[in-house]
């Protein structure tokens, strides 16, 4: 009986979270139009992110504490973070710096409200089925990034891990190819494990405190595409160590549930990228780096 009540509470909160997201997206559409008219479109995603963070934080009593937030302003740069669950949208609301944008799958462009906001605020949509269009989009993203001294936020794991232990999935190389090609730093962001606050596996959705550590930006000056594998290994090692030190996010009652067994470590709520998708992404960015070097 207790488990059923917990599940009902979980899904009621999920519905409330979706409504909060829709409200945030509606705000984003409005503010994007206003800022576009004021020729300050590059502040739209930052403004919407902060609005959503404060709204979500008040509704669900979840706070975020950031160590070294000043490092988020060392732009231009590629910002990367561990990708845990749907709660990452809330995390983005707190860490997202000004003049920063995201990349997203083309399909999200057609989602009501959310897609409208993303389109108006400068999101770069990637069409994986069309290599030429994807290359063109990434070229444009890099040019705008450098000219505006802004940031591009990416999740190098490529998919949500739903990890119940402080850990990372293997990194894909896309973000690192972009950073090396543009000769701009990578800004790693480590987030404490949030399964104690939100987890579809255990039907957990509670108040708490999420701790984030922004690591020192890593320069890519002078690096080439041949250096990317070593760069990926270096950054993942640093982030993994930071995530281990951060441990689990705190809950409001001070109780941290024991993690699930390793057999169910990776969630099945979201289909991970196939090997083909991963290869396509790596090939795409490798060609981009090669083409730009000619």
TrEMBL record:
Molecular function (Gene Ontology), one example: 1-acylglycerol-3-phosphate O-acyltransferase activity
As recorded in UniProt, its EC number(s) are 2.3.1.51
Protein name in the entry = 1-acyl-sn-glycerol-3-phosphate acyltransferase
* Origin organism lineage: Eukaryota, Fungi, Dikarya, Ascomycota, Saccharomycotina
Reactions that this protein is recorded to catalyse: a 1-acyl-sn-glycero-3-phosphate + an acyl-CoA = a 1,2-diacyl-sn-glycero-3-phosphate + CoA
* Xref: InterPro entries: AGP_acyltrans, Plipid/glycerol_acylTrfase
Domains: entry comment:
The HXXXXD motif is essential for acyltransferase activity and may constitute the binding site for the phosphate moiety of the glycerol-3-phosphate.
Any Pfam family the entry gives = Acyltransferase
> What's in the GO CC field?
endoplasmic reticulum; lipid droplet; membrane
Annotated Phospholipid/glycerol acyltransferase domain residues: 77-194
Sorted keywords for this record are: Acyltransferase, Lipid biosynthesis, Lipid metabolism, Phospholipid biosynthesis, Phospholipid metabolism, Transferase
Presence of the UniProt keyword Lipid metabolism in the record: yes
> Could you mention a single GO BP entry for this protein?
phosphatidic acid biosynthetic process
> Is Acyltransferase among this UniProt entry's keywords?
yes
Query: What's the family?
Result: Belongs to the 1-acyl-sn-glycerol-3-phosphate acyltransferase family.
Supply the NCBIfam families for this chain. AGP_acyltrn
């Amino acid at each position: 009986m207790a488990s059923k009540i917990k599940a009902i509470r979980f899904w009621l909160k999920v519905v409330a979270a979706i409504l909060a997201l829709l409200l945030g997206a509606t705000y984003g559409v409005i503010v994007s139009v206003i800022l576009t008219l004021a020729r300050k479109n590059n502040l739209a995603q930052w403004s919407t992110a902060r609005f959503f963070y404060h709204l979500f934080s008040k509704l669900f009593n979840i706070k975020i504490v950031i160590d070294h937030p000043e490092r988020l302003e060392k732009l231009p740069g590629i910002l990367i973070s561990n990708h845990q669950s749907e709660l990452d949208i809330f995390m983005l609301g707190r860490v997202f710096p000004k003049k920063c944008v995201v990349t997203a799958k083309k399909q999200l462009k057609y989602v009501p409200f959310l897609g409208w906001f993303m389109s108006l605020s400068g999101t770069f949509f990637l069409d994986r089925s069309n290599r030429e269009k994807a290359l063109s989009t990434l070229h444009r993203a890099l040019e705008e990034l450098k000219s505006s001294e802004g940031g591009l936020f990416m999740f190098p794991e490529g998919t949500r891990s739903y990890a119940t232990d402080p850990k990372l999935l293997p990194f894909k190389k896309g973000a690192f190819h972009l950073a090396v090609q543009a000769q701009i730093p990578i800004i790693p962001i480590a987030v404490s494990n949030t399964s104690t606050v939100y987890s579809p596996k255990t039907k957990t959705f509670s108040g708490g405190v999420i701790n984030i550590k922004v690591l020192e930006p890593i320069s890519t000056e002078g690096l080439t595409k041949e250096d990317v594998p070593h760069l990926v290994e270096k950054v993942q090692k640093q982030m993994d160590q930071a995530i281990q030190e951060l441990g689990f996010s705190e809950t409001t009652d001070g109780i941290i549930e024991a993690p699930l067994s390793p057999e169910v470590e990776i969630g099945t709520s979201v289909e991970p990228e196939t090997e083909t998708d991963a290869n396509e992404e790596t090939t795409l960015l490798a060609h981009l780096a090669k083409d730009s070097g000619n």
